[in-house]
Amino acid sequence: xxxxxxxxxxxxxxxxxxxxxxxxxxxxxxxxxxxxxxxxxxxxxxxxxxxxxxxxxxxxxxxxxxxxxxxxxxxxxxxxxxxxxxxxxxxxxxxxxxxxxxxxxxxxxxxxxxxxxxxxxxxxxxxx
Length: 128
Known about the structure:
The chain is of the alpha+beta class. The protein has a single domain (4-99), classed as Ribosomal Protein S5, domain 2 (2-Layer Sandwich). The protein has helices at 33-36, 40-52, 70-88, 93-99, and strands at residues 4-10, 13-21, 26-28, 31-32, 59-66.
């Protein structure tokens, strides 16, 4: 039984995804998907690539997550699953690309600049 692995990133979250044939179990950091992401919306985000290809319940997925918040982590897992499915079968790529799951979202947090309260916000200017 071959294991396909891929990495997904979003903001500061990194997801290492391991995909193999199975019954559809999704385990994240040793916990079940529904336990790790109690929100229905985040569970939906994670399962989007599987639903797009109609392969729900076909593969067991084991994920190791690091960093980020819940939304960034969910989207990192989505990208990792999509990449692993393409590694499994390259013919899956066009369907996943049209759904937008193959593109890594490059947006990162902008650093805070010295002499300012935040990254872009300035202290109030007083002419006199």
